[in-house]
Amino acid sequence: MKIYNTLTRSVEDFKENESGKVKMYTCGPTVYHFAHIGNLRTYMMEDVLEKFLRYSGYDVKRVMNITDVGHLTSDADEGEDKMLKGAKRENKTVLEIAEFYKKAFFEDCRKLNIKTPDVIEPATHCIPEFIKTIEGLIEKGYAYFADGNVYFDTSKVADYNALTGHSSDELMVGVRDDVSEDTNKRNKSDFVLWFTKSKFEDQELKWDSPWGYGYPGWHIECSCISMKHCGEYLDIHCGGVDNIFPHHTNEIAQSEAYLGHKWCNYWFHVHHLNDESGKMSKSKGEFLTVSLLESKGYDPIAYRFFCLQSHYRKPLTFSYPALDQASATFTKLKKKIAAIDPSGDVDEVFVGANREKFIAAVGNDMNTALGITNIYDILKADVNGATKLACLKDIDRVLSLDLVKGKAEEVDPEFTQKSELELEIEALIAERAEAKKNKNYQRADEIRNSLKERGITLIDIAKGTEYKID
Ligand code: AMP
Ligand code: ZN
């Protein structure tokens, strides 16, 4: 597989690390509002990348954070906390807002056939990890305390601008968003690891720390959550292009300073979806969500088709006429597939050959448009209906366009894999049932309470035990 690596600014052959498991980290949503369809373009292309890796035979572990604290209105660590802004807007608590929009995000993902990553970790669950890493950075001389906040000293790293290839002075202009400069910083590009002082004193979520009662910066979240679940070496880190600077630049600086070695090999960035007026926004113009598209009669999967028709490394402009065209093409395609006579024996050799062709096409830096062309090649091929359907089912493990009736997830159980958390909870529920059967109520209660502490509530019903994640 060939993939464009932002770090080297070139298309490279993908090589996984020695462990044989591809470790993939995705910057997750800031759950202060609904995701717009631009955000979801990024998650969709990352989903295709993950599924393509699995389809090509790689074993993948994919981790995503949920930003429920620390992301300020300017990406350069200035302004108000986005979560707090959301809570005020809706007259709710930050945790209520986080819970509501986290569910809404995964509901949108479900509608777009975006697979849930193996691990989902909210930032608010990892405060001890953040503190430990910040302490390590201070000890090693990479971080300093000034007037209540802990800052990362970007002048201490050799190649702070490696990911962007531009000087931070050039880049800072775009991200400052007219907010006043923080005079505590030793260098303009230094960023906050831990805040105890903010202009916005009503910050709702705060924790004790060696530097006082406060909250973490946004960038430290992703480094720590990635290290917690993927270890010291990451294969692929994903996000939208706006994450390259300062977020991912800062992640590299602090992770490598802390670890003392190179951290992540491949940086995968999806270009933006714009509307006709330019930048997509949650506050100005029409707020384009999946639900809005549905309310206008569009199938969310037609939007997936629309996105897969273009390359992830090109900006894409959304317009209703463009979506209408994609929807019409998609409906025609589905009708053609529905008319296929399923009889006959599957020609496995043909299915295998098509698979190779699909891998060569999509594996060339995620050329999803060629993946869609492959659908038409299958339809035109001189093989029986059963073989065509088998090929379509096969490539739909990556495209997830529900090509052959039913949701794509129903097509192949390999892609409905449960997350590590789900498997762990199910194992504990089984152990608890066994303990109760053996009258070992102490162990049964221990399991219930330890899950409760992690925000997982067990609910005993007539058929067994269900669970709810807070
Ligand atoms: P956020 O919830 O703001 O942290 O953003 C979630 C993801 O969406 C990040 O990976 C962003 O880089 C990405 N993103 C933000 N705006 C767009 C856009 N217009 N098109 C595509 N991706 C975007
Ligand atoms: Zn991130």
Tags for this model:
single chain, 470 residues, alpha/beta, Rossmann fold, 5-stranded parallel sheet, 17% strand
Short description:
By secondary structure, this protein is of the alpha/beta class. It contains 15 helices and 18 strands.
Structure description:
With 470 residues, the chain is α/β, with parallel strands linked by helices. Among the domains are: 2-9 and 16-270, Rossmann fold, CATH 3.40.50.620; 418-469, no CATH class. The chain has helices at 37-55, 82-90, 94-111, 127-139, 168-175, 218-230, 244-259, 290-295, 300-308, 320-338, 348-362, 368-380, 385-399, 420-437, 441-453, and strands at 2-5, 10-13, 21-26, 59-66, 72-74, 78-81, 119-122, 143-146, 149-152, 191-195, 215-216, 234-240, 264-270, 273-275, 278-279, 316-317, 456-461, 464-469. Strands 7-4-3-12-13 form a five-stranded parallel β-sheet, with helices on both faces. The protein is globular and about 75 Å long. The two termini are 39 Å apart. The model is unreliable at 407-417 (pLDDT under 50). It binds adenosine monophosphate and zinc ion. Residues 27, 222, 247 line the site of zinc ion (ZN). Zinc ion binds next to loops.
